[in-house]
């Protein structure tokens, strides 16, 4: 990208006011504007999106199996599910990311203007970012359509074949654009947390204060895991070419790794550096202690305190995880394999019943 939201912090801070923030060309991510406000807004948004898309596909005849060579009704159902999922979940993760940013207040060496700027860029992105992400999403969608059709001529023929076929091609592009915006937004926020590791105060006796880094990583991977878990919906009407879902798997595996690693790895290194530095200090202090006199136990007091403190520091985990975060991550990771296994079992059951 041609901008760096964290690098702009110094410019905003030196300005001495929030006017600079208001003038920066940041725009709220449009996916967030689609979510209905209110306590149950995300659930209502999901139901509305699914119902609207399902109704449109039904009216256009997409679920009519008369033209299986042109499109798959399973793919149409997948489009309904993935769009009804990714938009509300992106809103949820963005909201949780803002909460975790506030939870880091005790360990962040930031002034009020810097903190306000960070809160702003969690949900608002630069216009340059918008342009790049939109172009990438459109190219990915068009590329996937070309891959499925085999050539531009066939693609144009399919688009003109019927309104149902044309809607499926447009829906493919729509899904790629929405997914690209969601993943790019989450990766940008993960980069923000990655850079915040360098501004965090590491207290080795209270590393629980750094757990928000891990929670952001785990919540962010939820978007990708849910997207991968919805891919088997393509198989509900029988065999589907791997070209329909393999590109989606490939395109989400990389971002899933980045979303997990970016917020966690820098703070892990910061904890490790602080731990090694403190152990080195303790080793030096222990080396300066006079040789203890075993006949006089009181001479062991100072040495015992240093040894006990060093032992406590050595036991400090270098990763900002707690039991709840690890448990949640484990539950998330088993979701995609279970859905694929369930899809395979369901397909075999249907084939057995038909026979």
Write a structural description.
- This protein has helices at 8-15, 19-23, 30-33, 41-59, 73-103, 112-123, 127-149, 152-161, 163-196, 211-230, 246-288, 301-314, 323-333, 335-354; strands at 26-28, 124-126.
- The chain has 355 residues and is an all-alpha fold.
- It has a two-stranded antiparallel ribbon.
- It is elongated, with a radius of gyration of 26 Å.
| Global morphology | elongated
Q: Name the poorly predicted regions.
A: 349-354
Order of helices and strands: HHEHHHHEHHHHHHHH
- Strand order across the largest sheet: 1-2
What class would the helix/strand composition place it in? mainly alpha
Distance between the termini: 55 Å
* Number of strand segments: 2
Counted up, domains total 1
Roughly how much helix do the residues carry, as a percent range? over 70%
Number of helices: 14
Averaged pLDDT: 83
Integer-rounded radius of gyration: 26 Å
Beta percentage is: under 5%
Summarize the biggest pleated sheet: 2 strands, antiparallel
Which features characterize this protein?
355 residues, mainly alpha, two-stranded antiparallel sheet, 2% strand, elongated, disordered C terminus
How is the topology of this model organized?
Layout: H1 8-15, H2 19-23, E1 26-28, H3 30-33, H4 41-59, H5 73-103, H6 112-123, E2 124-126, H7 127-149, H8 152-161, H9 163-196, H10 211-230, H11 246-288, H12 301-314, H13 323-333, H14 335-354
At a glance:
With 355 residues, the chain is mainly α. The chain contains 14 helices and two strands; from the N terminus they run H-H-E-H-H-H-H-E-H-H-H-H-H-H-H-H. A two-stranded antiparallel sheet has the order 1-2.
């Amino acid at each position: 990208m041609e901008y760096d939201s964290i690098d702009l912090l110094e410019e905003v801070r030196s300005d001495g006011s929030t006017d600079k923030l208001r003038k920066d060309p940041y725009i709220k991510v449009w996916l967030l504007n689609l979510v209905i406000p209110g306590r149950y807004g995300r659930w209502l948004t999901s139901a509305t999106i699914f119902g609207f898309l399902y109704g449109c596909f039904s009216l256009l005849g997409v679920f009519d199996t008369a033209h299986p060579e042109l499109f798959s009704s399973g793919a149409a159902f997948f489009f309904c599910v993935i769009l009804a999922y990714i938009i509300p979940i992106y809103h949820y993760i963005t909201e949780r990311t803002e909460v975790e940013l506030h939870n880091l207040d005790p360990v962040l060496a930031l002034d009020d203007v810097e903190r306000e700027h960070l809160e702003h860029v969690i949900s608002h992105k630069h216009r340059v970012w918008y342009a790049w992400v939109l172009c990438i999403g459109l190219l990915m969608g068009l590329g996937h359509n070309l891959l499925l059709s085999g050539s531009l001529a066939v693609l144009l023929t399919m688009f003109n074949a019927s309104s149902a076929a044309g809607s499926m091609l447009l829906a493919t592009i729509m899904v790629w654009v929405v997914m690209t915006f969601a993943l790019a937004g989450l990766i940008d926020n993960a980069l923000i947390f990655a850079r915040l590791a360098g501004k965090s105060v590491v207290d080795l006796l209270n590393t629980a204060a750094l757990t928000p880094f891990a929670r952001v990583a785990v919540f962010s991977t939820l978007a990708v895991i849910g997207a991968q878990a919805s891919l088997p919906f393509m198989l509900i009407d029988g065999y589907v070419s791997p070209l329909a879902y393999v590109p989606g798997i490939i395109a989400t595996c990389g971002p899933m790794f980045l979303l997990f690693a970016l917020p966690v790895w820098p703070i892990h290194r910061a904890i490790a550096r602080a731990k090694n530095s403190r152990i080195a200090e303790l080793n030096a202090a222990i080396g300066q202690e006079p040789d203890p006199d075993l006949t006089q136990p009181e001479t062991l007091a100072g040495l015992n305190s240093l040894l006990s403190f060093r032992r406590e520091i050595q036991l400090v985990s270098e990763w900002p995880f707690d039991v709840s975060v690890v448990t949640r991550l484990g539950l998330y990771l088993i979701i995609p394999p279970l859905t694929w296994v369930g899809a395979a079992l369901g397909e075999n059951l249907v084939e057995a019943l038909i026979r």
